Each structure stands twice: as C-alpha cells, then as structure tokens.
Amino acid sequence: MAKQFKQTRWFFWLFLMVSILVSHVAEAQEYPTKPITLVNPGGAGGSTDLLMRAVISVASGYLGQPIVLDLKPGGSGAVGTDFVAKAAPDGYTLLCGGPGWNSTLPAIEGRSKGPEYFDAVCQINYNSSFTLVRSESPFKTLNEAIQWAKANPNKMVFGNTGVWGAADLCWKIVRHQTGIVTRDVPHEGGGPFIVALLGGHVDIGITGPPVSLPHIQAGKLRALAYNDNKRFPQTPNVPTAKEQGIDLIDHFWRSILVPKGTPPSIINKLASAFKKITEDPSFVEMIKKFGEEVNYLGPEEFTKMWKEEYESRKQLAKLYKK
Question: Which of 292, 303, 310 lies closest to 48, judged by CA?
Fold first, then answer.
C-alpha cells in the first residue's frame, strides 16, 4: 500500500512538472495574442517619449501585435513605475526603464522601484545630455554660469526633469564640485522643462539631445557643455563639461522592463523582438535624427549593469542626500 502511494505521488509530481513545462512552451509560442502596453513614466514630449514612439512605430512587425504607449508621469517617474511593478507578470505591461526612476530614486529616497521589482528585457540605448541656457543668456560657457552663481548665491534657477532624475543628479554633482547654491525647480520630464527654459521660467538646465537639439540648431537655446567624455558629433563646437574643469559624465539609458516573475520564455521572446527593432533601418534613422544611437544590451548583460549602478547610487546618497 505504501509503495503504491509513493508511486502515485511520484507520478503526480511528474505530471505536474510536465504540465508546467508544456504550459510555458505553449505560452511562449502563443505570446503575444493581444496588444502590449508600454508605460512611459516620463512626461509627454521628452526624449524618452520620442524614443518610445519610434519603437512602437516598427514594433508590430516583429511582435505580431501592436505596442500601445501609455504615459503615466508623476513623482519623477515613480507613478508609472509603481503601476507596472503591480501589473500581472504576463508580458502585456512593459515599463520604459530609466536610471532616474529605476536606480537613483529608489536607491537614494527609497521610493519608485528598483531591480528587485522587475525583470530586465533589454537596454535599448543611452545618451548623454547638454547643459543649456536660452540664446539671449549672458552665459557663453559653463564656467561663466558657475562664476555668476558663486557671486549670486541662490539667485540662479535650475530646471530639472524630475527630482533625483539624471539631470537633477548631474546638477547636484556640479554643485558639490563648485560649491554653488541654486534654486532648483523640478518638471515632469524633458518636454515640460524645455517649455519652462524657453519661456524664461528657469535660467539653466540639463536634458538630452532629442528634446534640446532642434532648439539648439534653431538658435533658441545655447549649449554650454555636453556632459560626456567626448563632444557630441552634431555640435562639435560645444565643449564637454570635463574640458571646462567639471567632472561630469551623464549616461541616461532607456530599457524595457517587466514585472518580477514574468516567465523567462516571454522575456526571451521580447528581448529577441526588441533586438530586431533596434536593428530596423527605419528605427535607426528616426532616432539618429534627434541625436540618439542604439546601444542594445540583452537581459543578463543589462541586469548586471543595472544592479551595479543601483548599488553605486546608494553610495552617492551619502554625498548628496540632505
């Protein structure tokens, strides 16, 4: 009797494991069977918004279903990020990840969501940023702006694209290195920040090429610095911050994330599709027009980079958190 019970139990567990395996295989083969939602936690008109619209314009050809972009700004990206973290892990709700809302904010302030809440699909790209003023500003270089801010504490108004976002962190580094004191005004993404800068509501700010480059080329904005270790190809006359004595490197990445617990078969299918999207000639051409380049990393490689960055942000908290 005992032997028969053991055999029955063994067959039960074998049947269960085979059923789960078959289910996962079928799931991977069938997925996706309906449109996929991609949540952008940044604001409309920002660089992330522009990039994701380029993604969804070619996505259906590689996934067999359309991707619908859903803007959920708020809380410097925390609102949209929290929404996706709580979504079903079925591959139908994706997050456009970024270092502000997925590394810096959770590591330093303990809000928004970091690596423990998501599985990584891929990194799509990264870009650096410009430090910007209006064309009629008296500042011609980053050092001129810093010297004025030193002589006029708390008079310069800095516009950022979200508290503890990439731009905010960059400016905290500038303030830490130079000792300047400024009034900082947060905005929900690059689009609202650019409107504020063009309208004269802030004096200076930082954001990426997709949003700022058209205004630089039109003569409405002046780039004081490019915040990378080399000059931006489309603005060769703009020096880097490092060339002006400020140790500032800004790498703002965009990625695709899914809620923790999403089946590996779905993650792999998404990663394969997004790799093809980033190789699509029309996609590459679109993002080049607004100053972006593809920098694809698969799930494992990106996860490693992301977790290392997340831990480094915890160390930054000791310097910059007040």
Answer: 292
Same domain, 137 and 219: yes
Cα 94 to Cα 56: distance, rounded to the nearest angstrom: 12
Strands 252-259 and 93-97: antiparallel
List of E strands, 187-322: 204-207, 221-226, 252-259, 294-297
If you ran DSSP here, which 8-state letter would residue 239 be given?
A: P
pLDDT tens-digit series, residues 13-33: 545 554 444 444 444 569 999
Q: How many CB atoms lie within 10 A of CB 88?
A: 10
- Could you tell me the pTM of the whole model? 0.76
Length of the chain: 322
Quickly tell me which residue has 């409309």 as its tokens.
Answer: 44
pLDDT in tens, 106-142: 988 888 999 999 999 999 998 889 999 999 999 999 9
Q: Can you say whether the dihedral through the CA atoms of 145, 148, 154, 155 is positive or negative?
A: negative
CB-based contacts of 145: which residues, under 8 Å, 6+ apart? 131, 133, 139, 156, 204, 224
Range of the domain at 293: 35-126+251-320
Residue 8 in any domain: the answer is: no
